[in-house]
Amino acid sequence: MDFQPTKDQQALRAGMRDLLAARFDRQALRAAVERPGLDRALWQALGDAGFFALRLPESAGGVGLGLPEAVLVFEEAGRALLTGPLVATHLAAGSVAGAASGESVVTRVDGPLVAWLEEADHVQGDASGARAMRSVDPLTPLHRSRGTRTPEPEAVLLAAAEQLGSAGRCTELAVQHAKQREQFGRPIGAFQAVKHLCADMLVRTEVARAAVYAAAVTEDPYEIAGAKLLADQAAVRGARDCLQAHGGMGFTWEADVHLHLKRAWVRAEQWQTADEAAEVLASAL
Amino acid sequence: MDLTYTEEEEAFRARLRQWLAASLPELPPRPDPLDWPARRAYDTAWQRMLYDAGYAGLHWPEAAGGRGATPTQHLIYLEETEKAGAPYVGANFVGLLHAGPTIAAEGTPEQRARWLPPVLRGEEIWCQGFSEPDAGSDLAALRTRAVRDGDDYVVTGSKIWTSHAEVADWCELLVRTEPISEAVPKHRGITWLALPMDAPGVTVRPLRTLAGSTEFAEVFLDEVRVPAANRVGAENDGWRVTMVTLSFERGTAFVGEVVACRRTLAELAAVAKETGRWDDGAVRRQLGWLNAEFTALWRLTQWNVSESERTGGVPGTGGSVFKLRYSHARQELYDTAARVLGPDSLDLDRDWTLDKLSSLSYTIAAGTSQIQRNIVAERILGLPKGR
Ligand SMILES: Cc1cc2nc3c(=O)[nH]c(=O)nc-3n(C[C@H](O)[C@H](O)[C@H](O)COP(=O)(O)OP(=O)(O)OC[C@H]3O[C@@H](n4cnc5c(N)ncnc54)[C@H](O)[C@@H]3O)c2cc1C
Predict the structure, then answer these.
(1) Cβ–Cβ < 8 Å for B127, B159
(2) Tell me, what's the ipTM?
(3) Residue A248, CA distances (Å) to A170, A244, A254 in order
(4) A175 touches chain B (CB under 8 A)
(5) Burial A143-163 (b: 16+ CB within 10 A, else e)
(6) What is the pTM of this model?
(7) Is the CB of B136 within 6 Å of ligand 1?
């Protein structure tokens, strides 16, 4: 048994991280906050890099990789707070024209919510009568809909992978800040109260990581539900703790922490909620 | 990333399963969990059976009398023995999981020949004399003194919380061979000795735990003569030797128990369905949560094992990440059991009541949760040391 990422998988992840560092760095993220909307050129770049066609067979023009690889690149997307209906478009590759190549943007009615409805070129499900809401996340426009939800395990898992990336990033942000910020004549990270906050963030992230990666390998729907449950928790609690570690700075619009928290809240309501996942897991007992 | 086992690994699993099915019925009846002498007899009998079948010291190096199994084989071993309901290492815990590995890594050839085979054969059991009344989390502050006198050390002091000291033959004892001073910081001046528990001057006073058992004890040492030949590692180098020991304890010691927790959870769900508690959505979802937790902890175990298989080293600080989450999750498991059982959870004869009491020690023993968090923060996240 060798559960660690292979060399190819590591290279894929590093490639995605590099792409995002070049095309969606902090400056681009903050620009997106100021001017909400989907960056079509970036969407196309993702398409060119094979982000949407990753799991499409090579015979169909795809990259021919599997869920473990998809999870690794979605983790990077979550880490960078990449915007847009990533999961819906990825899942539509092969069935909706232009989705695989990044030429079209696909969203989906996901139970009571539709994200990116106005920006999408193609909507899956019945979005008639959907009402726009003022989304808590400045980077995810949302509509309320009357749709029903049949959570597709792959969507649930990819959202969990994004949550994992966000949780990992929040741990890094908190640790960086705790090493630099000084109070009482020493870095705040030397104080146990702050240290323990950070340690718990890491522990939640690593447990979620094991769950997400394993679910990608086994594709077991119960493990996928567990992965979402633990990744939601790691992302939401992680962002809150990160905010706490930043003190007053964490409460400002300038710090990125709130963007991670708000996105984590959105994803926690998408595809499968904690209560829905817990019921699935109970039904397995 | 792959979770399939190789053909060789699966063949190992199949042989082990077969042997377990044939051998477990031969074990004597399970002893009263509160009766340590009976538990010693039971646990050492099981160890002897493992020895005769070639499974003793599976993960120890062959040079130390072990089987030199890979980390993955050891994982399979822990999974299968737990699934089959085989006894836990129990009284053999210290000998097999840390005194033995420490002697294997740091001892002389004579020391290995003297102490390792009886551990593997289940003939001698060890206890761990690290903690003292004033040195728990701050282990390096220990004060039990050892003064060299000819070929012996003369040891005076006391140890506390020594698990199964009452029934142990040997104790891995940490002593101070140089007093703390400006020149000797507290982490230095410590030495690792093998103490025979029947030496004159050793007094064991059992302590009753909150579960009602005498699973640990105070050990008083009054001018006990320990041959200098019993020293493992160099004089004053005991802290480094101890770190080797602790990495074993934290890295692999709890693996099998995750499997046990998953079994308990399934049993708990069955009881909830029988008694109607299942219809309470909050209880049901709590059980679902625990299912996610223990599945993930099992996957984290596989992750850590395959990592150590790749790097080939002793288990790393990842063990602290595991231990932190595991100890809390297991306590939550029994809290949920109490929620399912209601008033029956107050009955000591009910399943899980005693387990619930024992689980209270998980966030304390082998390093408290606070200390584990310090380790994670300082050694993994690189946050500055402080107090
Ligand atoms: C069931 C059981 C079996 C045991 N078996 C053995 C054994 O066989 N051999 C052996 O040597 N020992 C054994 N121990 C001892 C165990 O290792 C210690 O109890 C443990 O290390 C804590 O030390 P302490 O009890 O002195 O508590 P203390 O160190 O006094 O801690 C008390 C409280 O203060 C907190 N605290 C202390 N220092 C810090 C700090 N720096 N930062 C934050 N919080 C802190 C702790 O987390 C804890 O909450 C056993 C303990 C138990 C419960």
Answers:
(1) no
(2) 0.88
(3) 16, 8, 11
(4) yes
(5) bebebebebbbbbbbbbbbbb
(6) 0.91
(7) yes
